[in-house]
Write a structure and sequence with these properties.
The chain is α/β, with parallel strands linked by helices. The protein has six helices and seven strands.
């Protein structure tokens, strides 16, 4: 039987990292099948993946260094980004000397500095405490605004999704097909610290939660049925 994603036109959304998957799915980026690593796409995971033997500055420079950017230029660009996220004075600290929020800021600007067309972010703020998460959400928006870049942000936090997104894609339970796409009705620029105060927020949040709860309920019912089988 064909896999549920087999016939979907994925090239409509320019978000791809790998080409031919074990399931035989052809993934496309800007209409072209991707074979190998797609260097036009940045990727930030839950872990910061900083190189422990490099200082903060050297970690930020890494992507430019690997692309052959001259030392003077990459150093200047790195300093500009470090200044923008409030890490000036920590350039020569190593990852183990940084807090979780500082490490995450470093990982963020390390990806943004080489200006990929698309950035995939897989629950990047998940491991952080609630206050630091909101601060990082605000910094991400400030860094992104005006760049014209596309960010695909995976999250289980509905408030985070609303605060950051232009469009929210809700996935169904396994095998994970797209259930619904919602344009976010909140205008930009956004203040993530006061997102709940927007008069359009409550109704939109309730709509998302109702649809998400349907999926959660069905998962629970299926699990209960399997337990009694």
């Amino acid at each position: 039987a064909p896999h549920p994603f087999q016939d979907q036109e994925l090239e409509e959304r320019p978000v791809v990292v790998a080409g031919h998957t074990p399931l035989g799915i052809v993934v496309r980026y800007k209409g072209r099948a991707v074979d190998g690593v797609n260097t036009d796409v940045g990727y930030i995971t839950q872990d910061d993946n900083l190189l422990p033997w490099r200082s903060l500055l050297e970690n930020v420079e890494a992507a430019l260094e690997f692309r052959g950017v001259a030392a003077e230029e990459r150093r200047a660009r790195a300093h500009r980004y470090i200044e923008r996220v409030g890490l000036r004075g920590f350039e020569h600290h190593y990852p183990h000397e940084l807090s979780g929020g500082m490490r995450k800021r470093t990982a963020l600007i390390r990806t943004l500095i080489y200006e990929p067309d698309v950035i995939l972010m897989d629950e990047p703020f998940g491991p952080l405490d609630a206050q630091t998460r909101v601060i990082l959400q605000d910094e991400l928006l400030r860094l992104w605004e005006g760049t014209g870049k596309t960010i695909v942000f995976v999250t289980h936090d509905l408030v985070e999704a609303i605060a950051l997104s232009d469009e929210i894609v809700l996935f169904s339970r396994a095998p994970g097909t797209i259930k619904q796409v919602y344009p976010v009705p909140l205008s930009r620029p956004r203040d993530v610290f006061r997102i709940h105060a927007d008069p359009r927020f409550p109704a939109f949040y309730d709509q998302l939660w109702r649809d998400l709860k349907e999926e959660i309920t069905m998962v629970e019912q299926e699990a209960a049925a399997d337990g009694h089988a």
